[in-house]
Every structure is written in structure tokens, then in C-alpha cells.
Amino acid sequence: MEKLDIRKVRCQAKVFGTLVIVGGAMVMTLYKGQDIIFFWSKYIHHSRNYEPVENTNHSNEKDLVKGSILVMISTLAWAAFFILQAVTLRRYTAQLSLTAIVCFLGTLQSIVVTYVMEHKISNWSIGWDMNLLVAAYAGIVCSGIAYYVQGIVMQKRGPVFVTAFNPLLMLIVVIMESFILGGKIYLGGVIGTCMILMGLYSVLWGKYKDLKEQEVEILTKETKYCTSEKCMMEIMIEDAKANDIKKQEVNLSKSQG
């Protein structure tokens, strides 16, 4: 697992980078500011065939509270999943079979939740349309390939290195929304993006220094081991020489007697 020594600069960089990444994600979510028009925005136009409906009751506030609680629970569960995966990979190093087990258990969980929430049979049917593409992409790419790749990276670099790239999802979504759907990019999104990139660089710099220090420690241990082994060989050679000298003296004394 990750070791943190706050007295070292590399550990301070990781903590600072993590806080900056979280702050950037919050800025992108909570602050909009002025909208920024890029050169490609005027070439993308989408028809708006709907109008926002104003709701005068308090259901929106209740849904906001429930949604916030569920998002917090989901975030904690997602973080715990990374820790659990890192611990599991120490003893169970087969990434493919572990990915298959995770996807299978996730499928069972999704079936149970869907059965509880959706009682209409029509909602369970998937035809040859966008729903099939979304389900296939989510299962193959977002679950199967993603879990397998993050397991490999986690074995080599640790869970912190893997989770440091999660905020980039918000950045990619904003850029793709602007290119494909013609969505607006606000000032808060640009500020949050800069903060996320700065924090990510700080975390990766700290992890790079961690790896360098680990390599130095391994090299030092190997050097000490080689040195001690060399000393033992020299002692054994000296003992052998001393024994040979004693044998020669004994033989010489016998021949003279």
C-alpha cells in the first residue's frame, strides 16, 4: 500500500496534488462563470425540440439531497474498490480471472437492482439500436478492459497512480461535449481543468520520486548483500590458506622427526 512520510517533499507533492485535483473537480462542478466561445462552436448547431419545465414544488430539493448522499456513497465505494483490488492482487495475481469474477458479480448485482427498480418487462428488452451499443460498450470497454488494464497498472505503480487519472474523465467529457454536442465551455471548467492538470503533474512527480527511491533502496540492499558475500568468500579463502599452511607445517615436522 501507499506509504506517506509528510516530512519528505515527494509525499508533500502527492498530498498537495491530490487536494488540487479535488479542488479543480469541485470548481468544474460548482462554478460556471462566463461561457467561452471557441472557433469550432459556431459550426456546431443542434436542434432543441424541448423546453425546460419549471417545477414549483420542493421535490427538486429532496432529489438534490438524495442524489448528493448517493454520490458520496458511490464515491466511497469506488475508492474502497481500488483498495480492495490492490490488496487482492497481492495474493491473487491472475488479472484476467479476477476481472471475470468482478464482472460476473457486478452483473448479478445489476440484475437484482434492476429487478427491484424496474417492474416493466419492456424495459428489460434490448433491440438492435443505441441501447445495445451502449450496453456492449459499457460491458466490454468500461468494465472488462478497464478493470484488466487498471489491475496491471496497479500491480506496478499502486492504487494512487491509477486513481490520479480519474478526474481526467470530467475533462474528456467536457471536450467531447463541446466537439460532438456543441455544449458550452464555461470559465469554471477552464479553471478547474488547469487545476486538475497541475495536481496530476504534482502527484505523478511524487510517484516518480517514490519509484526512484525504491530503486536506490533495492540497489543498496543488493550492494550490501554482494559485499557481505564477498567478505565471506575472502574469509573462507583465508581459512583454507591457513589450514593448508598448518598441514604443511605438520607434514614438515613429521618428516624431520
From TrEMBL:
Keyword Transferase belongs to the record: no
Keyword Signal: no
UniProt protein name: WAT1-related protein
Localization per Swiss-Prot or TrEMBL: Membrane
Organism this protein belongs to: Lupinus albus
Membrane topology: Multi-pass membrane protein
Similarity annotation: Belongs to the drug/metabolite transporter (DMT) superfamily. Plant drug/metabolite exporter (P-DME) (TC 2.A.7.4) family.
Superkingdom per UniProt: Eukaryota
Primary localization: membrane
Domain EamA span(s) in chain numbering: 66-204
UniProt GO MF annotations: transmembrane transporter activity
Keywords: Membrane, Transmembrane, Transmembrane helix
Xref: Pfam families: EamA
GO cellular component: membrane
Any coiled-coil regions, as ranges: none
Transmembrane segments: 12-31, 64-84, 96-116, 128-148, 160-179, 185-204
